[in-house]
Every structure is written in structure tokens, then in C-alpha cells.
Amino acid sequence: MANRHTIILMQTSQNRATRTFMDYNSISQAMDGICGLYERKLKDLNPTNGNITYDIADLYNFIDGLTDLSALVYDHSIQAFLPYDRQWIKQRIFQHLKKLASR
């Protein structure tokens, strides 16, 4: 699963103008990117708090609050991108954070 080009497709509100994408070299980097988005939002909401913490349920609520979130992951064996939904992203983020915590 390492080094699989991953594109995150996201829409933050009902306004179609909020559609965007983020491009990463791996699934792991993409999961870091999604966590980073949430962390930046927390910092924006709490500018005077230098030490912000959250748990996986908070992150899942953020993900569920997005109008749309999906991933396209390149599969070298078929030379094409495979689509994955919000639930898959949540499972991947959990696995990713669990691996980071065990280091």
C-alpha cells in the first residue's frame, strides 16, 4: 500500500465552489493531510489555545460534517485509480493514527 498515488476529493459545504482536491504520493500522506486539515480548523477556532487535543470521534465528526469526501488511489496492477468512500477513509485514518501511536 506504500507509495500509492492518492487524490483526496473534498467538498466542504453545499456550495459547489468549495469542491477541491489534494494530491499525495501515498495513502499515509493523504491521511496526514486530512488530519492536518482538521488540526488547522481547530487552530482557527481556538487561536489562543497553543495546545489543542482531539480524539478519533472528533476527527470522525469533522469528516462526517463535510458535504463530500472520497479518495482515488492508484493501483499499479491495473494502471488506474480506484475510488474509495468516506468510510474507507475513516478506517484508513484510524489505522494510520494507531500505527503512529505505537511508534
TrEMBL record:
**Presence of keyword Cell cycle:** yes
| Gene3D superfamilies reported in the protein's UniProt record | Enhancer of rudimentary (3.30.2260.10)
What InterPro entries has UniProt attached to this entry?
EHR_sf (IPR035912), ERH (IPR000781)
| Keywords attached to this entry | Cell cycle
Top-level lineage group: Eukaryota
Question: Is this entry keyworded Cell cycle?
Answer: yes
One of this protein's Pfam families, by short name? ER
Its function? May have a role in the cell cycle.
Q: Which family does it belong to?
A: Belongs to the E(R) family.
Protein name in the entry: Enhancer of rudimentary homolog
Q: Which organism is it from?
A: Phoenix dactylifera
List the gene name.
LOC103710450
